[in-house]
Design goal:
heterotrimer, A mainly alpha (about 220), B mainly alpha (about 325), C mainly alpha (about 675), B: mainly alpha, C: about 675 residues, mainly alpha, two-stranded antiparallel ribbon, 5 strands, about 70% helix, globular
Chain lengths: ~220, ~325, ~675
Amino acid sequence: MMDRLALDVAHLFAGGLVLVSFMLLYQDRMTGLVNNFALHAVVVSLSVAWQAYIQDAPHLYITAAIALGVKAFVIPLALHRIILRLGIHRTIEPVVGIGLTMLAGIGLVALAIMVMLPITAQAGTLAREDLAFALSVILLGLLMMVSRRNAVSQVIGFMSIENGLILAATGAKGMPLVVEISVAFSILVALIVIGIFLFRIRERFETVDVHALHEHRGEQP
Amino acid sequence: MAIALDAAVQLVQLALVLALAPLLTGLVRRLKAHLLRRQGPPLLQPYRDLLRLLRKEVVLAHSASWLFRVVPYLVFTTTWVAAALVPTFAAGLVFSHAADMIAIVALLGSARFLLALAGLDVGTSFGGIGSSREMMIASLAEPAMLMVVFTLSLLAGSTQLSSIAASMQSPEVGLRVSLALALVGLVMVALAENARIPVDNPATHLELTMVHEAMILEYSGRHLALIEAASYLKLLLYLSVIVCVFFPWGVAVSGQGFAAYLAGVAVYVLKLAAGGFLLAVFETAIAKMRVFRVSEFLGAALMLGFLAALLLFVTQAR
Amino acid sequence: MALEVLLWCAAALLATGVAAVATARHRAASASVYGIALGATAIAMLAAAGSLLAQHPPAVAHLPLGLPWLGARFRLDALTAFFLLVVNLGGAAASLFALGHGRHEESPARVLPFYPAFLAGMNLVVLADDAFTFLFSWEFMSLTSWALVMAHHRRSGNAAAGYVYLLMASLGTLALLLAFGLLAGPGGGYAFEAMRHAAPSADVAGAVLALALIGAGSKAGLVPLHVWLPLAHPAAPSHVSALMSGVMTKVAVYGFVRIVFDLLGPPAWWWGALVPLLGGVTAVLGVLYALMQHDLKRLLAYHTVENIGIIFIGLGLALAFQANQMQAAAALALTAALFHVFNHSVFKSLLFFGAGAVLNATGERDMERLGGLIHRMPYTAFAFLVGSAAISALPPFNGFVSEWLTFQAILLSPALPQWLLKFLVPAIGALLALSAALAAACFVKAFGVTFLGRPRTPVARDAAETDRWSLAAMFVFAALCLAAGIVPGQFLDALAPVTQALVGAHLPLQEERAWLTIVPIAESRSAYSGLVLFTAIALAAWITTWVIHRWASAATRRSAPWDCGFPDASPITQYTAGSFSQPIRRVFGSVVFRAREEVDMPRPGDARPARFSVRVHDVPWDLFYVPAANAVTFAAERLNKVQFMTIRGYLTLVFGALVVLLAVLAAWQ
């Protein structure tokens, strides 16, 4: 019974992560997007903490704390600052048709399930469904990067992919702590570099709409 | 003897839902007012509203037909019969062998069909606005509701609400992802169907923000009383479905004795009060959406229901 | 015995058609032709019903007509009896309607000879037991209905409609011819009995399925072969439109069921993926098209497309279950589809009769020129309301029962093992739910804009109620809608021998259930009692009315509408069909049809009127038909050069053909 409850709660967190990824796709205001991303990070840290509890692996608690601290507080605060300085906190982003995006999201979840469940037929039920959900989160993050025009939204999509990777790694037992720390730091570095670039782009072209960059490509067919 | 007891329970349920529905709406209104730091109307005000309307004269437009006069009775009746099918304090209702959740959804659909026709009957532009927007909202809310019903039926192995409630109480269901998705979808549909913020404002009188109010603009007197009572019943129905499926503890099963029924009623009233409180808080915290954002909102509910059913299809073979 | 009666009825109808050629202009011709048609179809319907209920073994007849070595074979088994019941019920009601409606026919010589022949053709298609008789009757049915479509050929659009109809009918017959050829195989056994015993390989079976989908599907109206339906059905006279939409599409469904379920042998699982998917797409597209229309008959024709989609969803699910040896579930899906066949023929005919009555009374088919007809034509309005409620799947009418059964079949589908089916079936469930909700919106629009509100034109203001015969036909069908909704158990039991013959199982018998409940699978799983629901609603309504009349004020006063304090006397301020469907067009149409609205608003001070235009693209037409037509035109222009060659050129052609044939002969040795 306890075992069953443990499985169900883990599933709930994984499914909740997929749900929050869908909410990320649905958001079109910048501040709402950043807050949603913070929620994404909170859910992933709760999931990792629960995995630490049921797998009896204390180093995963540290992973959860890193995810919570860095991705639920530090990065969203930084992003809020960036958005305010870029002056885009009031824009409503023209997302490519919310209906079609959601349909594509459902298709990607179906694809992830169709790929993952037959492959992992020998593994335990928990790992199988966690992997399927993790692949869904990764694909949904990629969809978000593809369907957005604003560079900040693309960055958020990129970081939600990493949350999916964490979910996959903790589902399969025993990810070494050093891997997690290095991945987290590389994401942080990437974020800082991207932030710098965003400001340079904004200075130069007065906009962070990546579509506008297209005109300055140089080589014309 | 058992059948007579079940029939008595069914009749008590019919009377109970009718008695409690205006109280629920009164509670929600008073809580919303308190949250806005106003006194608000008394809890029993909806009862007084209904009595006042019953005593008033009906004013009919010249172009109103017999359909306009018959619709309030039919709308009230179908909503009342649908509300009688939802287990509130006791499971195993007699009517549950006659109609299941799909029939409940379809009965509410009939009420909406007739109300939309009544909106078009007088031939004004406000009625047209209300009817066309209501049918647009319904064209997404009803499929979303049906997908939630699918999910629940797949889990419980039955489409009857009593069986679903009984199986939700058993321990082997557990906390499944599909249930969480279905709950979120059902809450979104309930908000849309009951014309609550963020979909529609039940307290507005600005013509361009109305949906439900625009359809019933021409009604007065006893007709308006019946339609208001139907909308109170509909809110009660949706809250009852949510608590009976997702929070089924405390529902009396057939043959447990009188004390169990009383306890069931008390637990039910408590659950309704909690639901009303949450609704009041939610409505105060969120702003109303533009009409064409509602389609995205309900599209998301449909996707959630579909995803929940898809996950169940894939992970079980029952 | 029943078979002979049916064949004699068909012969009588043919003879009436021939006789009407000479006597069409006579004063009593219309009444006598329709009267004889009514009698013949009524007798045929009773014979078919008797055969179905008595569960006789199949009867065969062999007539020495047609091809000398084949003859004409006819067979009456459970499936045939059911479809004959549907066909002749529709035919009888249409003849009853036409007794009143046909008096206003302006060119009876173009309608009267072909109408009984059309009925006879449909009966013969269903009775046929070999490929030649089937195809001959099918073509006969198409040609007679084409003649009826062209009856008012001088009206704009009708000639083009007839042309498209003829093209699509030829395409369908070609596909069916190829299908029967493949089924007959190298042995050449064209009798159905021989085809049943031949076992085609999996590839051939797949090809036959595809050809049957094209052939039968184009006559039934599956997307993308539906394009002729909304052009041709409205062009014909109203009773013929009812027959074409309500009955001829069902004959096409019969063709599909006969070929795929009976002649073809055990299905492959991917058939159960393709057919429901086509059905689901057809259902949603059909109702979305219907929502864009403001011509009443065209709206009804597009709506037929939606219901055919629902029927094919049921048929496809039955194929999927049968391929996985789940016989009981296949029986449920097939029963749901066949019950919907019956229901649709009843309420669609009823709705077309209503549209015909409105057309008769006002001369208008365009909803935007009608309105307020509920005051002028109260009985027609009531019958149309019952039909609208039935087609929107509202309890306690019959449309709800067949949709409920289809949903129950979908809920049995998690047991299907194939992965593609596991993903496809919930998607199809979502499509079915979406189409049901949109259908309700569509009929609120159709009934509301036509009958409710205020009259928009003088003809609507001065309309008069139609005649007794038309009303009788409509009320019979309205009563049947309610009866089939309250007592569905009898109809389901009548379908048991049909499904037993086709999939080897049938639904548990419903006749001993209490309160006329239907239980498709098991009592613990799901049950529905239309009678209890109807009684409960009636009882509650009676209690409410009594309480209100006892304790509420009965004062009523008429005045101008409230309209938020700004009542406008002009009826053009009320909602039109286009404005009613604007929110749905914006939500769905912008994706599916690339619908774009443009408002041309003049600047302040400019006195010209504002212009509102909507641009809509028909996706199947642009994707399939326009390129096909362009390709044909291109090829034809190239081939046209053959007309202008020299004599030497023609001789070279003949010589070349001769050489090629000799070479083929040599290579084949």
